[in-house]
What we know:
- The chain is built from 2 helices and 5 strands.
- By secondary structure, the chain is α+β, with helices and mostly antiparallel strands.
- It has a 5-stranded mixed sheet.
Amino acid sequence: xxxxxxxARHGSKKNPFYRIVVADQRSARDGRFIENIGTFDPTGxxxxxxxxxxxxxxxxRGAQPSHTLERLLKQSAPRA
Length: 80
């Protein structure tokens, strides 16, 4: 079973809101998931929130983030 960390779309038409979920790769985009580890609101002030401990836990277990989520994680990383 391949596990991915990806975005699941919620919200209404033209008002997107995403949950960052850990899911089996075969499940639908907004379907069944294993765990909800964060949120992404592209229209809000606090746009990106993720539980870093759970993210690292799932990555250590072999879960692969989607390309979009990987880009968001890089953008939100603190810069030195």
